[in-house]
């Protein structure tokens, strides 16, 4: 089982790599579209600027291949900015399009609380999610961001598995079939984060075992 | 449910070894950074700061190697800095495995550095460290590890730093640093109430009550200490339970 980490020249890729290595996962860096073809799962780690990320993915010719593999059912995990990239657009870079897997828009968080939203926060569970199996309800995760998909941004029928509240409720965990995203950094979130990554590896393992030729996984369970 | 206040141990290093001293002088060896990092990660620290207090260009490769060794031990965020003067130097710190880069003297000399770093890596990766000393009714910012005073008011400089791109303020009271007389709550509150970003209070930590005071009276978002953790005078679990029982939101389990 091989996990592709999308490499686009910035971001937290080494820490994600290390966190997965601790769990015994076999990862490789994917700096170009060809590298995505054989992946049993794809992780898009991200920190920084929405526009910079989308432009980098565009220059590398990775936007369409990513969309195709995601809609083809390969387990996908977007981390922080990688979650935001799943949406159609972001107020952080109004001229750049997101991957558009979800129709909603990423917005600036309300300035009623201190920004960036930086530190450890808890989740409000909304839907059962395989990503959160075995994670205590009161577990803390590490966040570092000023933009977010506010609640219901994924659109009707999509699974907002968990929200978080910081000046307003925003999407913290998405799990829509094989399409996953987390606004926090599991690679920086101690044992709770390690458990979440382990759960994602479980999804990837199931996909690798059944083969990509199988019909794509259904909607959220 | 709300954002937890953070407890942050700090490793002051000479590039490769943890050192400690009182008010930036009388340094002595306090251990291996990676070993301490592993211990704090395990025991429930919320984040780690690693500083190169010697910060000479000659041994920068040594410090970058220290960051790599420390980062390899952590499943919590890492801030690192010391003598960072350019975008390239900041990038090297982040590439070595830090999540945030702290800048101090160079940002005062050339505030555009904050803007450049934030534009490249995002404000969440830029920590403005301010060394402040009381001066009458206000506080003055110091540079070069506290050796040289500036004409900047510390609170006004914090505000300007945030406007220019800093996503967090690491605020050290030089009057309290190394004294174990408690945090400077007045200084911390003055900055925390002025800026829109999180403030890490530093300098003077001794008892759990000091931490309670800096969160309640000082309105700190995080509190940083070094020697009380290095010397095992204070455990993270008991400190966090003490604070949680008194109404401070804390991540108590690792």
Task: Describe the fold and architecture.
- The complex is a heterodimer of chains A (221) and B (254).
- In chain A, strands 2-1-3-4-13-12-11-8 form an 8-stranded mixed beta sheet.
- Chain A has a single domain (3-210), classed as Rossmann fold (3-Layer(aba) Sandwich), CATH 3.40.50.
- Chain A has 221 residues and is α/β, with parallel strands linked by helices.
- Chain A has helices at residues 13-22, 50-59, 63-71, 81-84, 190-210, and strands spanning 3-6, 27-30, 41-44, 76-79, 89-90, 105-108, 117-122, 124-125, 140-145, 147-148, 160-165, 169-176, 179-182.
- Chain A is 24% helix and 25% strand.
- Chain A contains 5 helices and 13 strands.
- In chain B, 35% of the residues lie in helices and 27% in strands.
- The model of chain B has no long low-confidence stretch (mean pLDDT 93).
- By secondary structure, chain B is α/β, with parallel strands linked by helices.
- The longest helix of chain B is centred in the first third of the chain and has 12 residues, at 60-71.
- Chain B is globular and about 45 Å long.
- Chain B contains 10 helices and 12 strands.
- Chains A and B meet through helix 1, strand 7, strand 9 and helix 5 of A and helix 5 of B.
Report the β-strand fraction of chain B as a percent range: 25-35%
What count of domains describes the coordinates of chain A? 1
Mean pLDDT of chain A: 90
Largest sheet of chain A at a glance?
8 strands, mixed
Distance between the termini of chain B: 17 Å
Q: Superfamily at the CATH H level of chain B?
A: Aldolase class I
Shape, per Cα inertia axes of chain A: globular
* CATH topology heading of chain A: Rossmann fold
| CATH architecture classification of chain A | 3-Layer(aba) Sandwich
Query: Which CATH top level class of chain A fits?
Result: Alpha Beta
Q: How many domains of chain B, as an integer?
A: 1
Strand runs of chain A, count? 13
